[in-house]
């Protein structure tokens, strides 16, 4: 019994020792450099360790790892939820609600935008689209989405840009129009009266009227780039579509409203002259020319006098005239609300 047990124990010990030797040999074999294994070259040894299911993906190729593509997909969901009813599935302004709207929704497929901080030949900046989404547009069916999460606004902008096929090609050519801070003296009488001269000399009255609400206007109806009828804005009531702040009004003058209102950027407004004002005398009320004469006398006599100025002088004069025009437009804005104005009209039977 004793000798058998000894033999069995010896066999077990031998088996344990054999297993230990094999384990050590495997361990030592893994630590040897691939070039030393069985005389194989290093490249052949490393090739056996490659993972054939892995694939290198270049940045932007895979939508799952492309940040902008993820943003666009998120924007599509936002667009379907809030925008598709008016602007349509394809961004062409042909949503189911469009037929019932007087002012038609924007057609994004043509790359034409009215409210921009860029010149009239440029696409808007993303910040311009953000401002329109955030503020909305007064007096039309474009609501303000101030409570929309920031990320959703950014995402839907990326999606909307995709409706215009040439966006990526043209975005590098955008020219931003600088908008300075408004001066503090816009409410002064001199600013307002000089602004009245600018308003008349630039023929603003032909569309908006001599009083800012259509009186004596000769261009009362026209069509935009999409063939939709348009009417000139009444400055005396309601919110301005581009914004009511002085800088908003300045921006509108300098960028224009593409397809319906020209821009007065650069040194254009430096060319307000006595001769130009005289062409608008027909629009004045009796005795108004005499009242404006002290302010008209501050402007150059004619185009030749303007041409004799240096470039910096013309730009300086244009900026002053621009703010004067802003001051005049703001003076036309009624201090009462639209509701109060409507009630006053109904009481007087007008």
Order of helices and strands: HHHHHHHHHEEHHHHHH
User: What is the tally of helical segments?
Assistant: 15
Coarse structural class: mainly alpha
Please state the average pLDDT score. 83
Anisotropy-based shape: elongated
**What portion of the residues fall into strands of 2 or more residues?**
under 5%
| Assembly state (oligomeric) | single chain
Low-confidence stretches: 1-6, 28-37, 336-350
Q: Please count the beta strands (DSSP E, at least 2 residues each).
A: 2
Helix proportion range: 40-55%
Number of domains: 2
Strand order of the largest sheet: 1-2
Backbone CA Rg: 36 Å
State the major sheet: 2 strands, antiparallel
End-to-end Cα distance:
129 Å
Could you explain how this protein is built, in words?
By secondary structure, this protein is mainly α. The chain contains 15 helices and 2 strands. The chain folds into 2 domains: 109 residues, Cytochrome Bc1 Complex, Chain D, domain 2; 160 residues, no CATH class. A two-stranded antiparallel ribbon has the order 1-2. Helix 8 crosses helix 14. The N terminus and C terminus are likely disordered.
């Amino acid at each position: 019994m004793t000798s058998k047990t000894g033999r069995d124990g010896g066999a077990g010990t031998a088996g344990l020792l054999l297993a230990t030797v094999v384990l050590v040999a495997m361990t030592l074999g893994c630590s040897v450099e691939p070039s030393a294994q069985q005389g194989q070259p290093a490249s052949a040894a490393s090739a056996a360790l490659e993972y054939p299911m892995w694939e290198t993906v270049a940045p932007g190729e895979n939508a799952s790892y492309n940040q902008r593509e993820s943003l666009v997909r998120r924007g599509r969901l936002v667009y379907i939820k809030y925008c598709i009813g008016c602007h349509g599935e394809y961004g062409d302004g042909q949503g189911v609600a469009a037929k019932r709207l007087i002012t038609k929704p924007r057609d994004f497929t043509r790359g034409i935008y009215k409210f921009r901080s860029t010149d009239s030949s440029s696409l808007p900046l993303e910040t311009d689209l953000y401002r329109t989404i955030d503020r909305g547009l007064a007096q039309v069916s474009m609501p303000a989405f101030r409570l929309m999460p920031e990320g959703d606004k950014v995402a839907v902008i990326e999606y909307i840009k995709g409706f215009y096929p040439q966006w990526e090609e043209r975005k590098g050519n955008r020219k931003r129009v600088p908008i300075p801070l408004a001066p503090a003296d816009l409410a002064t009488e001199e600013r307002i009266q000089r602004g009245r001269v600018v308003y008349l000399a630039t023929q603003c009255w032909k569309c908006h009227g001599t009083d800012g609400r259509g009186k004596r206007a000769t261009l009362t109806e026209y069509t935009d780039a999409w063939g939709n009828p348009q009417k000139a804005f009444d400055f005396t009531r309601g919110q301005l579509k581009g914004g009511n702040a002085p800088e908003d009004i300045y921006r509108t003058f300098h960028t224009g409203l593409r397809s319906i209102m020209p821009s007065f950027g650069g040194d254009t407004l430096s060319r307000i002259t006595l001769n130009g004002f005289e062409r608008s005398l027909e629009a004045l009320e009796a005795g108004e020319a005499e009242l404006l004469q002290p302010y008209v006398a501050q402007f150059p006599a004619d185009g030749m006098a303007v041409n004799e100025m240096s470039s910096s002088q013309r730009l300086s004069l244009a900026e002053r005239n621009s703010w004067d025009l802003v001051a005049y437009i703001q003076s036309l804005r009624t201090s009462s609300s639209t509701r109060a104005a409507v009630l006053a009209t109904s009481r007087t039977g007008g």
